[in-house]
Every structure is written in C-alpha cells, then in structure tokens.
Specification:
about 20% helix; alpha+beta; six-stranded antiparallel beta sheet; globular; about 160 residues; about 35% strand; 3 helices
C-alpha cells in the first residue's frame, strides 16, 4: 500500500455523504460497526458517480454498476457522534470496469478513518453481464481520472486488485 494521504490532501476532493455517526451504528466495542464503513463509503461513491454520468437510478435505463472486488483498510476508529465525509478518487478505467479509491474521513478529528479500494463493472441489465461503458460515460470518467491523476498525492492502492 502506498502512503496514506493526509486530511489536508483529501480536503481538496469534494465531500459526499456527510453525516454524524448515529448511535445505531455503534457496536459492542463502542465504535462504528464495520458494516457501516462500507455502507457509508459505497453511498459516497454512488453520489460521486452521478458527476460522471452514472445516476443512482441508472437501472431504470437498463444499466447498473456491480462491485467486483474490494480491498478494505481500517485506519482510525469512528465513534458515535463523529462527523464523517466520503472522498472519492478515480484511478483508472478499462472497457468494462472502473478502479476507484474511496476515503472515509473523520471530520471531527481531521484524519483518515478508512480506505475502500474497489473495482466495479458496467452491467447491461437485459443480460445482467458486463458490457462496455457508454461513450459519454467513458469520456467523463477518463476526464475525472486525468483530473485525479494531477492530485499531489498517490492513490492508496493495495496492490491486490487492479483493472484487467
């Protein structure tokens, strides 16, 4: 894994799914249960994808995105009442897949809490199989990947997943 970005570096990315950690997310250890890290990160990723032509209701148009692989890293715990946000960095695109890194940021302590690296696929819902990205989406994703490639920090990659 590459060096983790700082809070200040992540602050340059737009914030998604901003919220406080509710009491209902707390587990027996007194911090947010692991299932909610991936849930909040996934919601933030979904929100960010609307900006590259992938709306949350895309299934109504016969398309979807399906997760293919994840690599999860827990960096700092989150507690009930903590303010969190999601920051998304697109790393790359292939004909049918996108590689993204999703950062869950602890806004209360100004630190990184969690990293979710993900590969997800474009799906044609009539066949429920992967298919090439529509040209307009591919162009928007490529532009975002190029924009994120200019960020002053390297993406946090596990080395265990990659585009094929």
């Amino acid at each position: 894994m590459t060096t983790l970005p700082t809070y200040d570096q992540l602050a340059d990315l737009p914030a998604y799914s901003e919220r406080r950690v509710p009491v209902a997310f707390e587990d027996i250890n007194g911090h947010m249960n692991v299932r909610h890290y991936i849930g909040i990160a996934s919601e933030g990723l979904d929100d960010s994808l609307t900006e590259v032509g992938i709306p949350t209701n895309w299934v109504d148009k016969g398309f979807a995105v399906f997760s293919a692989e994840h690599h999860l890293t827990y960096v700092n715990e989150l507690l009930t009442g903590d303010q969190v946000s999601v920051r998304v960095r697109l790393v790359g695109r292939s004909e049918r897949a996108i590689h993204a890194v999703v950062y869950l940021v602890d806004e209360t302590r100004k630190q990184l809490s969690y990293v979710m690296e993900e590969i997800f696929l474009h799906i044609d819902m009539t066949t429920r199989k992967s298919s090439p990205w529509p040209a307009d989406v591919a162009a928007l994703v490529d532009a975002r990947v190029a924009e994120h490639g200019k960020l002053p920090f390297e993406p946090t990659l596990s080395g265990s997943i990659a585009l094929r």
